[in-house]
Model the fold of this input.
Amino acid sequence: MEATRSDIRYTPSSFDADDAGLAPVARPAEWKWRSLESFLRTGGSHGLISRLPAFWQAVFPMHDACRATGIPLFVNDPENIPVGAAALDHGFDAVVCEAADIPAFAGYCTERNRTMPKAWFVIRRPGKAPVAHLPASGLVWQEVHALPGVPALAQCEHLARERQRVFHMTSESDSGVALHADDSPWTLPPDALRACGTCACGLPLVELVC
Amino acid sequence: MLTFAELQELVAYATGPHASSFYKKLYGMRPGDEAKRIEDDAAWRALPQLLKRDLLAVPMHERAFPPWKNVASVFASSGTSGAGPLFSPHALNNGYAYRLRFHDFKKATLVSIPPVAKKEWEVRALGGGMVVALDPKRARASVRLAKEAGVDSMFVFLYHVPLVAPHMEEFGIARDIRFIELAGEPCSLSFFRYIRRVFPNAVIVSEYSASEVETLPMGVVCRPLDGSEPLEVYHPHERVHMELIDPESGVPRAPEKNAEGELLISSRADSPAFPLVRYRIGDMVRIVETTCAEHGTWSFQVLGRADMDFIKVPGGMLRADEIERVLRALGESDRFELHCADRDDGAAPKLDAVLDVESPESDLETLAARIAQSLRLAPSYTFADGVARGLFFPLRCRRLAPGTPGGKRRRMTRSTT
Done:
């Protein structure tokens, strides 16, 4: 039975807005971004700045995660770095951004002697190289998204504090996400991951092979 | 509008033991003082008027009323010339039940008015369906997602309409749009005609809002836009209190028919992140009716900014201090007047900007081109970029006419005809 419109949210099928095959991928509206919630609680954050493109439609589960943790959300146009940096003087101390955004934002804050975020939630796209330069300071929590706003590989507090470049599989990567029979569930190619032991938290570790 | 009893509660709340120290300091109270009680209208009017610079002087996290977890969203708006942005905290609250008069929202809604996630919360509170976020820099892709969602309504900034309209026409869904709510800038008649042409089956309404005001909208539309003047007529939302004042002296004015003045806004949401008490919003209005037949209170139209030092345009802002900077950098006098209007070029209305400058010797056409190349509307976006993207007509320069001796020259104006 097709879900009602209020029960689903759409995620774009590509990070590239110009992708000729761009299509919406239906996801349950009740899905919770648990890894983001864990990040907000673990980092003791007081306010989250989102620097993700609005096109991702990630603002909705992000808002839910912030409400669940009692933390305000400020949505910053990624191209407007000065306003995002200014928010760091108004109670905001955590940032969610793509890996490629780190040099520009951190660089701006450093050059102008601005307050730096104390916690970073860094999203990496599959097929992209690991983040070359993590922020010099603060908690850095990384994850790999299969689709915009859909975590495939996530980290726990232990991995984040150790700044490890390995991950845990998420439930999305195990089973895919689909509401309709004709939607293709997302999966990682079998040779994209390499098992590499067990984490201190008890979960298996995987490494993303590029 | 708020009753006097509600205003008494507002002041008591704003200065009570659980409030932030902001209003206590503004009113010259000491930390341990009891909550302020106003006894009559005179005492209310004696309260200091709250200015933007008062808000800018205190970081948001020191200004916000506890508990911090009530702050769901934060808006950033332009500060005063030379100042950083003003951050305004908002708790979750919903003043949009009136929308059901016009639409049921059972299908999908495309949204660009922030906070977008709150718009989803509002729509679902009305029993509505899906909300799709519009990314203005990826409008085509956003409209494509919205099409698949079965979009039939939009809450968008006025200047985003030309970004989405061509793609909705391309995808064959423009005629499916049944409801459009506009915000951001007053809608000119030419802009309305454009929207009506592209979206012939849509009810078109406006909301009067400001990022500093938590209880949105401030003004509720009295009737949909239908091409009759004045286009946008509002009445105060029941959760706000509005006063009319003289913009020069700050003296109250009676809201009589055709009276013009600047608005003072007072508002308080349930469990507010920051209540407003007598805030000078900076907007000039004209009273349309002293008693709106349907809503029982006075109605008004928004004329523009009282002391305009910026104008919102597609992609950014035209700022007075930025124009001054560019003129000085080009070796010109920094005195100017900027006149903006929407002009129909046969497709969508485009911004037509004329800059009056004091340049006795410069070639005005060359000067205009140099200004356009240097004039930043956003960190990486100039006026010339906007022209190249087809959003603006090329900037024109004229000689500045002599000002009225002793008079105040309005530096930036925007026509709504």
About this structure: The CA atoms of residues 158 and 200 of chain A lie 7 Å apart. Chain A touches chain B at residues 4-6, 8-10, 12, 17-18, 22-24, 46-47, 53-55, 57, 59-60, 62-64, 66-67, 70-76, 79-83, 86-87, 89-92 (CB under 8 Å). Residues 174-185 of chain A have pLDDT under 50 and may be disordered. DSSP finds six helices and eleven strands in chain A.
